[in-house]
Amino acid sequence: MIVSKPALLLGIETSCDETAAAVVEDGARLRSSVVASQLDTHGKYGGVVPELASREHLRAIGPVVRECLSEAGVALDDLAAVAATSGPGLVGSLLVGLTYAKALCFARGLPLIGVNHIEGHIHAVLLEARAAQREVEFPAVALVVSGGHTHLFEMTGVSEYRLIGKTRDDAAGEAFDKVAKLLGFGYPGGPVIDRLAPYGDPNGVRLPLAKMKGNAQDFSFSGLKTAVLRWVEAQDMQEEIDRRRRLLRENPRPAVEQWLEVTPKRTLDLVASFQRTVIEELLRRAAAAIELMSARALIISGGVACNSGLRAAAGELRLGVPVFFPTPGLSTDNAAMIAAAGFEKWKKGEWSDLSLAARANLSLTAPR
Ligand code: KG4
Ligand code: ZN
Question: 282: Cβ–Cβ under 8 A, 6 or more apart, which residues?
Answer without folding.
Answer: 143, 145, 150, 172, 219, 300, 304, 310
